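Lab manual, section 2.4: Encoding a predicted structure.

Procedure: take the sequence of the chain (244 residues), apply the prediction step described in section 2.3, and record the output as structure tokens. A sample record is shown.
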Amino acid sequence: MTGDILYEDDIPGGAHWSFTLRRGTVLRLIDVEGGANVGMLFYNPSNLLERYNAPDTLKCQHTFKLTAGHCLYSDMGRIFCSIITDTVGWHDTVCGGTDRAMVAAKWGEKTYQEARNDWTQNGRDSFLVEAGKHGLGKRDMAANVNWFSKVAPDDTGALSFVPGNSTAGAHVDLRFEMDTLVLFHTCPHPLDPATDYPRRPIRYQVRRAAPVADDDPCRTARPENRRGFANTELYTACAPVAGA
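Recorded output:
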């Protein structure tokens, strides 16, 4: 990562937002208080049919978690972004998100009319609100990343939430290898056992990225990543400019 902060903002817990990150920028996510969860989805703004593919991301890198050195793949074999820095060490990409019924059962239901900005939002509806701003809908939903959250399997394969995975000030840096539409929310992880609805804020910062070297750790981590970078570089050499 290089250069000054181009933009930054704070997002409260239980909220959602979206924007397009340009190739050659870095998005830093910061867990302000500790215990945050950031659900995130990725799309190609020039072809919204291309979106994040969790199974390919995991199987081609022989991993169950995401951390520094990993890349996030699209369903076209291209790389949306690479994780270049990570002070957390484990991010979940298998558990999906909450829906309205799940949040109501675990923490009760507070509507906007009743609680204003303290209403109990859920991951699925948050994604759909942001998706609708870009012409996307229910059929465009995919398995999402849960930044800052960790789940662990037991001997039977059942997954459980690991409290305290992310502490105050922890951060992860995503370097974008192609223009990417990012949808995200700060709603709770679906396995979070908290008694009260968790509202953990995050800060995000956008900076310029340094050029990707031939020996970049994300590029060289796996042979599949070399192919992913090659696919992405071929596409970006010929890609239309988003919004043009």
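Check your result against the sample. The mean pLDDT is 95.
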